[in-house]
Structure formats: structure tokens, C-alpha cells
Amino acid sequence: MQYPLKNIITTVLCIACSSLLFAQKLQQDPKLVKGELKNGFKYYLYPADSKSQQTALQLFVNAGSLQENEDQRGLAHFVEHMAFNGSKNFPKNEVITFLESLGVKFGADLNAHTSYDETIYKITIDTKDEQNLNKAISIVADWAFHLSFDSLEIEKERGIVIEEWRTKQGASSRMSDQYLPLIFNNSRYAERKPIGTLDVLHHFRRPTIVNFYTTWYRPQLMGIGIVTNQDLKKTEKLIKEVFGKAKNPKHAPKREAYYLPAHADTLYSILTDKEATTIDFSYVTKIPADKGVRTMEEFESSLKRSFVNNLVKKRFERLSQLQNDFKEGSMSLSDLLLHSGISSGGTTLYEDNIKDGIYKYLLENERIRRYGFTNSEIEDFRTQFVAQIKRGLESRDETVNATGLLADMKNNFFTDATLMDRKYRQETALKVQAAIDSADLVQYLKQSLITGNTVIMLSGPERLKDQLPTKAQLQELFNTIRSTQIPVWKDQISVPDQLLKNTPVAGKITDSTFIKEVGLRKWVLSNGITVYLRPSSGRKDHIQLTGFRKGGIIALDTTDYVNAVYAKNIIGASGAGDFTRQALTKYLLGNSASATFVLSQNREGVAASANMKDIKTMFELLYLKWTQPRADKAVFDNIKKRSVEATQNRKYTPTAEYNKQISRKIGSDDTEASEIDADRLQKELQFDRILDVYHKRFGSARDFEFVIIGDFNPDSIKNDVETYLGGLPGTAIDHTQRIPNYSLKDDSDILMYAGEAEKATVNLFYQTTDLNYSVREIMENTLMEEVLKVKLRKNLREEQSGVYGVGVSTSATSFPTPLMRTRVTFTCEPARTDFLIGQVGVELDKIAKDPSYFKEELANIKVQLKQDYKKQYEKETFWSAELRNHLYYNFSNWDYFTKYDELLDNITGSDISNRIKSKVIGASRVKAILLPETNK
After folding, report:
1. Assessment of whether the complete model's pTM goes beyond 0.70
2. What is the 3-state secondary structure (H, E, C) of 221-260?
3. Range of the domain at 62
4. Residue-wise pLDDT tens digits, 744-756
């Protein structure tokens, strides 16, 4: 065929222009200040939003466990621990103490992690005072260049790191120790797990860890990311002064890049473990990693990956509704390591359908590989994707996401990915997505899902060892799939035109009052509903609604207990009105409205939200789900089958009987009656009871209280409130509940032996029903809990080196009956169990007897709580949750919202000491210990 020269030239020019377009570099965010010092140290600075008084900092270290010598295995991670145990300007643990005095919370605001290729340190700190930023930068510099490695502190930390290793032991770690060498193909990755080896952790000497630190913590391998409210020019100048002086060591070894070696053959791992509870099939195919998005071509590729991963997720979500051959399935493309990507997928299988379940999963996997996705699937996702981007572009919210920005800085540091302005990123995505079609995604899949370099893994309980397919049988399944004719995916979904056929008959506002103290409008509706409305600018163009009422499962007959427990999930997955779940999802594509219902032990409730332009849809959706719930038989069968098997398998876990005995000890007098085993679930969960149970608690909305928070004027939504909330049925409803008894007559002990891992699990419960539930008691409980966390951390972790972490939680309620429970939990070496439990008692006694013992900690905690309260105060979620609690417990005043700092300051050390005496030491105690089987 002859082509006119003009057409040929035009075609060539179009190709050239297209190539130039996609070779075009992406624009860096103009607000980013980025630089590199003469010694190679890099820095990234970004302004926080105008309301922020905080700075978030991260130190990036381009070194991890891969850089360890054989005698240093685990020491990259150990160095990270030592950063909190002494440096040039902060001896011993003083860096933690100092930062806590500024409101920084250890764990939440101060943390670090070590991986194969990296070590990252993190601080979030209040910097209303510029000096706090200077101090934070000084701390980061100490981490980078001036750690002390005091011999005594090393010995203390040695025990803590070994306890961290101990916490990870169990069935999953035993199996991963066997399959990871196959995934890593016996490369350096297989020999350098970040936690290291017990032999090195027990026996390394100080010079060995110092050698790792001085070799790899050098300016040319480090950078800092900062998002701050302070002046960027001053901050940049300080960075240059503090970090510019550091020198790189002479003759330092090259920072090698490590890759996973390829293997043409497929490797298989078939494992069982006595404590495994599920049968899991998965595969991993090693592919090249994304090397950072810098050009339009790379952005397009990244967006195609996002399309593929989301479309696969939605396909398998749909399959979980249509079949019972396997449980949830997955398939995705991602980066596993700095230089290695993976195509991976898998499923959890039913015990009675292992081989066929694998076959059916592989069939769906292959269908995607061959054909990609239908135009309907792609357009549905595109609608959702575009709507989300447009909401972002139209939003008036200018909040700076410090966490996301620091992640982008980190990506630039390690992969040179361009840090893009949010608006530019969204506009680019909107432009690029328009050209992505089915053929593009099929081509992308073919390029990405390469053959070979694959590991197949199958794992399950030891008791089912003989039922698992062999390597030969798995190979046969793969061969069969490759030669099987598979039709293109088809899924016809009928979608009604509108949510509601008729507009509800509206109710009326019968009373309106304004609560000045908290800017709260209160409306009483004619159907017995009360609505509280509070405009808030915390999240622009958004509204959040919650509704609640006392009642719940304990207001139902005991014969329907099992049905009540599962009703919410079954109805929630079944759609509503004339809509199946999938039809409802399709109808709402591109719409931000959502509404979910809750049926818990003591209350029933609803939560809904939307952008302001979708507010009518939100109210219609809430009304539809409330008045026209559905229970789909296929959904019911699916949930029941999975739940029966999961409940049956739970008894094989080492902690099953232990947890059951704890529940019986600390639970109410009807705890045993509420236990659901597989036989009871099979017998009592009945499809024809699900909707009846739902209607008993949601058949009427009378006595519901709604809290609506958002960027709105109450008058603008008055009509919707009267129509869709006021139009709900308001007949009388019985709220009579069974009143449980939680009184414990005496202290009691549980001692059990189970599990192979050489670790002890300890749970200490202190329980009382003697309390006068009030805002002050809630605040005293919070302070008491935080004091216990700090003191037990200092004793059990830092002084005794006996635990990796200590969990402390305090909960209290006055409804349906008064109950307060404090829990202390940790894992440890079995031989040290009694000693460490004794140390908990020592700390309780010290706190109870001497308020001055925790004076410094209490002061620091108050600073932390005040800062956190201030951060949360403008958020929708704060007002929604706290107003709900205030109304639910009928607190007498609004002081929590108007005088928080004053209330906090009025609580003294003596108050905390007295609370420990009466509500912990003076409470009934349950001591529960789980030791390994070998300790019998």
C-alpha cells in the first residue's frame, strides 16, 4: 500500500512529539527547598500549612542490614535502638526525656525503623518556639554522627532487642524462615534479615557495632526531610551549619546495590506448622522495580499500575460475592525491595476444597493475564478515580500532609522520584488517565507479568498435611491452566435509576435550641429523634453524621444472639432496597456519599459522610438502608461458611484456650452464654432470622440522637434533616436490656502451657465496678494510663531489659453497668515471668505511695495531652466522637470542650496516686500467664 509522503511525515512527527512529551521531565513542587552539601548530605525543606505549629523531621540513612558483615548481623537495627540511648548532647535516655517534656510521645511522635536497604528516624515536635526546631535538628545531627555507644547502655539494649526478636516468634516466623530463602534465591537478602541472629545479638562487642556506625553513617549516604512552620531560609542555613561540618571517612567502602538473582525454573515451598490456622496459596514473581517517577512516561506507567492493581482488587471483591471455591483472592504489582519489584498474588482456601480452590483461583488469575479488564470495569473505575481527583482539585482544604510529603522526600532520596505539587500531580493524572484503555492495560500486563523467576508457596496446618497438593500436582494445575480455554469476563449488573422511588413523608422540627458554649444547634423532630448540628471548618466541603441509641445486642432475646452478632455484616454486604451490593456500588460511582450501620453489644448506630455536593445522596442512602435492608442468601452462605471454618480453626491456636479462660474470668456472668463455637454457629445462624433481628433494633428510629458536623450552615440542610431523618419511622421501641454483672469476688490466676515459641505471654487485669463515671474520671484514667505506660517502660524495658514493649490500657463505662478495667500486658523470656510481674507491682506501689515519684512524667504527659487536644479540636472526627460520648453518658456540663486545659491542670499527682490505690491495687486482679509447652 502506498502512503503519501505528507502522511508519513505527519506520522513520524506525531511519534516524535509523543516521544518528546513522555520524555518530558515532571515539574518539581516549587515550594520544595532541596539541596546537597559539599559532603554529599542532602536536605529537603517544605512549609507547613499556616495553621500548623508543628515540625515533622526524618533522617534518611542509605544503609540497612544488607551493609552488615557476617559478625554484624542485626547491628544495623541495633544502631537504631542505640540512637535513643546516648549521644554527644543527650546522654543515656535523655533524648526521650527531653522530647517528652516538649509534648513528644515516644512511639507515636518519636520512632525509627530499619530495613534491608534503609534506616529512617522520625520526630514530630511542637515548634511554636523556634528553639524547639533547633533542638530537634541537633538531635538528628547527634543520631547521624555522634552516638555514644556506652557499654552499659549496649548491655541494657541487648536484652530489649532480643525480646523484640522473641515477640516475632511463632508459626508465621517459622514458615517465613523457610520460604524467604526461596523468594530471595539465597541472595544476600536471605542472609540479612534486619532483626539479625541470636548468636550475634548475644555476643557482639562494642567495637563491632561502632565499626558499622562509623562506616555507613556518613554524610554522602544521608539526608534530612523537614516539614515545618518555621522560616525555611533560617532552617536551611542551620542545616548547612550543623551538617556541613561532617566529613566522609577516608577509604570508605562503596555502597553496593544488591539485586535478587534470577532463576528460570519455578521454585516451590510446601509447608505445614502445628500452629497454622489457615491454608494459604500464593506466588511471587520477581520483576524489575520502578526506579522512581521522573518523566511523563514513568508517570503514565505508574498510573497504569495503579489502574491494574485497583481493577484486580475490584474483580476479586466481586468474585468473593459470586463463588465459594476460595476465599478472598489477590493479585498485584509492587516494589518489594529498593531494586526489586514483584508480581504477586494468592488466596486463602477452604479445607474441603483445597486443590479445586487453587485451580479456580489460578483460572481467574489467568483470565486477567490474558484479557485484562472489560470496558465496563475500566470506565467504572475511571469514573470513581476522576471524581476523586476532581474533589481534590475543587477542595478548599489547604492542609499540608506532612506524612505524605516526607514519604515523597524519602522516595526522592532513594530513587530520585520527582516530588510533585499536589495540584500538578492531580491535573497530570487527570490528563494521562483519559488515554488509558483496555488495550493499554492488556499490553501493560504482558510487559509486567513476565514468565519465570517465580516462587510458589502453599502453607497450612500440620493436621492437614496429607491433604495439601504436592509439587507435582501444583505443576500439573499450572500446566492445565495454560492450556485451558477461558472465556472473557462477563458480569451483567442491573442498576435501578434512583435510590428511592418516593420521597419520604417529612417530619417536623418541634423544638430548636442553641447551646452557646459549644456552638451546637439542637433540633427535636416529631418522630422522637434529636439532632445536634455543629458547623466546623476542620474539613472543607465535607459533612459527617453519626447516630446512636442505647440498646444493642443485649436488648434482644438471647435466642437471637448469634444472628445479632452477624446481622450487621450480612446486611451490610447485601445492598439495600432494589439494589444488590454490586448495583449499589455501581450507582454510587463517583459519588462521595456513604452510610453504614452498627449493632454492638450495648448500642445501635449509623455513620454517614459525604462531600457537600453529595449531601442529598447521603441522606437518601441512609434512609434507604434504614428502611429497606436486604439479606442476600448468597452473601449469607458465604459469610457463614467462612465464619464456621475460622471459628473451628481458632481452637488450634496456642492462645485460644488461654483467651477463652481470660474472657470467662473478667467477663460478665453471661460470658459463657455469649461464646460462639463452630457447632453453635452452624446451628443458630439462620438466614430467615437476620432481617427480623435487624428490624427489632432499627424498625424504629425513636430515641436516636444524631450528631452532624461539617462545613455547612444548619439552615441549608434543614429540609434534608426533616425529610430523611424526620421521615424515619418513630414508633415506640423497647430498650430493656439484660444487665450483666462484672463483679469479681476474689483475685484469680490463670496458668496455661501452649505453643512452641520460647516466650511467655502475660496479662494482668485490674477490674472494679465501683466508680462514678464523669469527665474528670475519664481524664484521671487517661493520665493514670499514660503514667503507667512511661513508668513500666522505664522499669521493664529500659532498666530490666526484660521486654520489648509494655501494653497498658484503661477502659471505663457507666452503661449498661459501671465497669472499669486496667490491663497490663507483655511478652518475655519464660524464666523472667515472675520477676517482671513483680516489677509491675513495685511500680504500682511507688506510684500509689509517692506523687513526687512521677512528678516529671505527669508534667510531660499533660503537655502531650494538651498539644494533642489542640491538634484534634478542629477536626470533624473529634467533635463527632466527643459529642457522641458526651450525649451517650449524659454528662452534666460542657467543660471538656471549653476548659480542657484547666480541667487537666486541676488533676494532681495525689489524685493519680489515689486512683491507683483504689481502682488498680484495690481492684480485683486476674493474673493470666501463658508459657510454652516445653515449660510443663
Report:
1. yes
2. HEEEEEEECCCHHHHHHHHHHHHCCCCCCCCCCCCCCCCC
3. 33-169+184-243
4. 888 999 999 999 9
